[in-house]
Target: Ribosome biogenesis GTPase A
Amino acid sequence: MNINWFPGHMLKTKKEIQANLKLVDLVIEIRDARIVKASANPDIDKLCSSKPRLILLNKSDLCEESIVRKWCNNLKSNNIDAIPVNCVSGKGLNGIKGAIDEIMKEKILRQKNRGIVNIVTRAMVVGIPNVGKSSFINKMAKNNIAKTGDRPGVTKNKQWIKTKMGLELLDTPGVLWPKFDDMNVALNLAFTGAIKDEIIDVEELAYELVKRLSEICPDKLMERYKLTELSDDAEKNLYNIGIKRGAVISGGAVDYHRIGNIILDEFRAGKIGRICIELPEK
Model:
């Protein structure tokens, strides 16, 4: 599959991130716990390298806990602070204040020594589309200030949001990068919904997802779709899943578009199981 999606507003967002960095103390980058590497925008690494950074591994409830812990340890070994969170339920978000205070302790100490009492930390929230930035901000602000949606590209303009913990957040639209050099990265982004389904062949994407899940979690795939065995042929597995789910058209042929959408939706909702597509390197 040849997957690329870089609408005009993403280029504008990159320029805004660079221009607004001087307004913030640190960067909060949100990634998808299922695809920690693929959801790391290399442009954000370059743009935000001058600022301290805290990474939130969102949607950790959709991933195996042991693997999420390994990812946190992996990032920590590279001097990057990371916290597993669920921005919808709020799980893990209570650890953000302490993590930020630790990252900013030297600056906070300087401010206290100058007699500043009400210390406010300003953070820019960045990440790829549909990773949960708006849900995070809404949870932190205790109301629905930022727009949310189950599709990428909902947030278009920057906005400041105040919280009750001495933290001000600058929201930014989700941004990808102009060209994917590794199609596995592009597939992982597409699997999790970071790339609009409208620009992708759903049938082919579902085929690739079934192929991947057959390799990394065959038992979960078989259990969800009541398969007695898996074939080495992903297309045959897709066909059998379609039959099991009754996604057939006249003449008994499988409706691959329909079953493709079912599989993608169920994977993204965690109904197939808690699955990490990417594993941390040792």
